[in-house]
Amino acid sequence: MATERVASWAVNLTYSSLPPEVVQAAVQSFYNWVGCAIGGATHPATTTALDALSPFFGKSTSTLLGNKATRQADASHAALLNGIASHVHDYDDTHLATIIHPTGPVASALLAQSEAVGGVKGDEFLTALVAGIEAECKLGLGVWPDHYDVGWHITSTVGSIGAAVAVGKLLRLQTTPMQHAISIAATQVTGLRDMFGSDTKSFHVGRAAQNGLLAAVLASKGYTGSLQAIEAKRGWSNVVSTVNTVDKQLSTLGSVWEIAANAFKPYPCGIVVHPVIDGSIQLHREIAPAGKNVKDIKSVVARVHPLVLELTGKKTPQDGLQAKFSVYHGGAIGLVLGKAGPAQYTDEVVLNSEIISIRDKITAIADEKLGADETEITVVFADGSELKKHIVHAVGSVQVPMTTAQLEEKFLDQASLVLGTEGAQTASKLAWGIQTSRAVETLVKDI
Amino acid sequence: MATERVASWAVNLTYSSLPPEVVQAAVQSFYNWVGCAIGGATHPATTTALDALSPFFGKSTSTLLGNKATRQADASHAALLNGIASHVHDYDDTHLATIIHPTGPVASALLAQSEAVGGVKGDEFLTALVAGIEAECKLGLGVWPDHYDVGWHITSTVGSIGAAVAVGKLLRLQTTPMQHAISIAATQVTGLRDMFGSDTKSFHVGRAAQNGLLAAVLASKGYTGSLQAIEAKRGWSNVVSTVNTVDKQLSTLGSVWEIAANAFKPYPCGIVVHPVIDGSIQLHREIAPAGKNVKDIKSVVARVHPLVLELTGKKTPQDGLQAKFSVYHGGAIGLVLGKAGPAQYTDEVVLNSEIISIRDKITAIADEKLGADETEITVVFADGSELKKHIVHAVGSVQVPMTTAQLEEKFLDQASLVLGTEGAQTASKLAWGIQTSRAVETLVKDI
Prior knowledge:
2 copies of one chain form a homodimer.
Chain A (H helix, E strand, L loop, with lengths): L1 H11 L7 H20 L4 H10 L8 E2 L8 E2 L1 H13 L6 E2 L7 H15 L4 H22 L2 H5 L3 H17 L4 H12 L1 E3 L9 H21 L15 H5 L5 H5 L11 E2 L10 H14 L9 E8 L1 H7 L7 H4 L3 H11 L9 H4 L2 H7 L2 E5 L8 E7 L4 E6 L12 H29 L7 H6 L2
Helix pairs in contact in A: 1-6, 1-9, 2-4, 2-6, 2-19, 3-4, 4-5, 4-10, 5-6, 5-8, 5-10, 6-8, 8-9, 8-10, 9-10, 13-16, 16-18
């Protein structure tokens, strides 16, 4: 009954039933996503995809965020390209319990189709966004961790379904067609982890958005899938995972809100690196006052959760993209530069000899006793003295969330590189206004 | 090295190196596919998808086979819609060792992109078709049978990769970009078997075509995936299957040609039903000469390979689509009507009381000693007398292939329902001419 349960819950969800913290989380998630999509608009993965696919573009209805040259595309291609852009710097949000990046697939599809439909109000948009994100995260929890462990990029595999639910809600599907939409999305299982470190990782997010949009649009015209797509013997949950707690997870739909646990990244790289970056930045600030110099560092040992090495164990990254998967680069920029924004993940910084020198002195040791947002770092200097740092929860965790001011700084930092300072400020103001927007297409047309 | 091996082999394949039987098989596969795509053009699954997706259509470059109203779409949508149409009657070809329907995903992508590119000659087209089909079938063999058993629709999961290889060859990718194309296709694992019996089964074939086309086009502009997408620990073969004989299968690339073992269906339903239909049609012809009448049938027992019941065990199909998954309907139309063409799979025939009456008298018994193309049927009449039939190999098997005349009859039977007799004959003549075509787009524009 899982498919029907998700469909029926989403169909019946109303804006007035959303608790204030859920609405706030939805606004923040949308805002953070817009900033990331603008920030990623000029990345080669986005522009290469745009260049390759523009011959296929249909009627322009939907905004390509951060692209002032090719401003629009058809909804399907806008969903793809905004999805790629929003994930390409690995700077988007994270549902920590599953490491799903929930907003990318859902918002990319939803915004593009909202513009194509026209006249969608902010409350309607946010309700659909919440429906999609809840469906996506509950299903992700239902196959976690086996699904991810075996090699699926969970963000896009469940993202296709979340996008279908959101667009299906926008199109006002009833329960049965919503089940078909979920089904058509579920059968497009997109995203292998082997792609991490290549352009295709962010393609997954864009394709998930397209998959879901396509599924909902097909279902809205009567296209059929399976009514038991999630739970059937050869349906989604059983084919993509040996663990299946979907029913249990769905039992808390509407009572435990996953979007309320959505976290935002202060650093544009895999979230498991963040404790090491936090610790390294804090240590950077203590090195001079302690009368030491970064050049005097002899060795660095970081004890980390085992997942950190599994996901980000690249010892010698060769470019900015690979560096996102290197806990060593993260530690080095923290220690040497005291910052870890997009500007510290350029190819130039990754290949800088001073950074490489410190990077190569860092040893990371997996320690199962540590949490995923925890680290213990010991810096040993040439004279044998040490500095230590214990990060219990990294910034951007549920315990230490980013503040609104930090979110805005992150948005402006990214967006101003693409739109300039003034353009970034305009975009920021518009994106914050989603809740009271009277027509989403007028909100985004000036971004 | 699997990804590189497939890529390098495909890149270096030349028309002059194709054995005559491979060229012949490629021509027949293309011809049969065109007939099926025309035959499926008016099916509701095709027309619903067309209706839903036409708002997204880009510049018209590529033919929608069998559609005289909306003649063209952009290449990506043409790939999708021709792919759906070519599979929707379950009448397309079958690589018997894997039950992959190989031509649908590959030809749908290849034809659409060939028209968009323009000036592609028949020999170039056929070489790319062979490259795609060989890649697809070898990889399918490499994960067979576990991949299918667990619930993947193997036609579309490997079809995405085959389509990428074919379009990549058309776009003259070199080995490294071809590896990326394979990778971007491999990460889009489309097709759950739970969709069988719904519109989404044929969507899988169309989507696989689109996946592959998109992958090759992206790779042609420099978009990157993993260079080890097939063989990596968290790459395609290890994530989608617990069985992995990919290396072994690839060792026979270019020496054992899978396309030469491609089989064509005389009946528009799952191939495992064909022995029962063959036997039932033969029994139909013997009933009257034996002084009996179908109305006097008391019971029918068909001993069949276990896969027959697993795939086509639907006892009481409610429409033409469900009937394709019913060995009981297949037996009933054979016995009552002596035919099993598209006209015997309409909703009307499925719900006909005489058909239902015989259908309900049929028992199918799984027998592991029988081959997948074998059956033993016993018809018992009210007076206790019996007629028996042992089909050792069904028509359309490798042992009893369809003749060229039978292929043409099948093409004309399907196409004339859509294009009329004259239109079907024109289309047939044009499709046979693929080998010597000087530009594929001129060949198909009059189909």
